[in-house]
Amino acid sequence: MQRDQISVSAAAWDQMRDGRPVRLYTLANRAGLQVCATDYGCTIVSLTAPDRDGQPTDVVLGYDRLADYMANSAYMGCVVGRYANRIAAGRFTLDGRTYTLATNSASGGLPCHLHGGRVGFDKRLWESEPVTEAGAAGVRFHRRSPDGEEGYPGNLDVTVEYWLTDRNELRVEYDATCDAPTVVNLTQHMYFNLGGHDRGTILDHELMIAAERLTPVNAGLIPTGEYVPVAGTPFDFRTPTVVGLRIDAEHAQLQYGGGYDLNFVLDQRDIQRQPAATLCDPTSGRRLELFATTPGLQFYSGNFLDSSHIGKGGHPYQRRAGLCLETQHYPDSPNHAHFPSTVLRPGQQYRHTAVYRFSTR
Ligand code: BGC
What number does the ligand 1 atom closest to the CA of 257 have? Predict the structure, then answer.
């Protein structure tokens, strides 16, 4: 399908263990931006962007084969849900009823529910179709998460769309509706290395996050419920700052996650015009501006990666080979009444848009 010089094509890629076909979609524009995504976990398997000299490189970490994504414990490139990030002890109460979710992680020895549980949205095959609109082409993914999946109440109808625009943007749109009260928090878990997925670490990248405050965590990476200012701390990214500059500073909030792994409270701003974050690789000149409608952003500096993660082209992804900027509601919100609510009720619509705009400097 071709429209306004942006194309979307679909091809057979592989198959699930039960034989269901798995597809790979390719979105491309004439400016050299290309996104490949599969219906397995709505996973973005590659994102190719030109550097300041026009040289294209794949700037997201990932794998070559479906089998590697199935075994993937690092959530490379996928959509995470029903609830992205952590829920303390895998428990929350809604309308007086307590729900028990799968506990699939134990940071600091404290069990929690992470990124949707044992078989989250990232490990499911979604329905998919190509879509076009003026100035953009994309792919729409849909799945119905059944009542009780991973312990969550209510059926949830989820749509995720990836749009490549003629403004060099990848726009991600999330929509969900339910038939019983539930909680929802969806995000995209791409690991970026704007120098190239196989170019070492992200420590030299310059990052800006439009956040005066963050939600500090305990040793289990669960928010304590407080808000603390970033001023005067290694978490002050209000102006572009080199990621590696303070990453190993003596600070409990860095030690719990072995580097950056925290939720930033995004400032009030014009969300159409003012990015939630910007990321720049000074060597290649690639620049990413991230616009988001969510109240929070998780900055995770890939601390749990190690060279046992063999990625695309056989490349081992060392610690901090890529970083995630996860547009999200605050972690563990179902257990913090004063955090922005993640409760979705029948008749309401969950909506979240994230725009990744690429340029060079
Ligand atoms: C979390 C990390 C977690 C990682 C898993 C990130 O979103 O913030 O704590 O280890 O996902 O890949």
Answer: 9
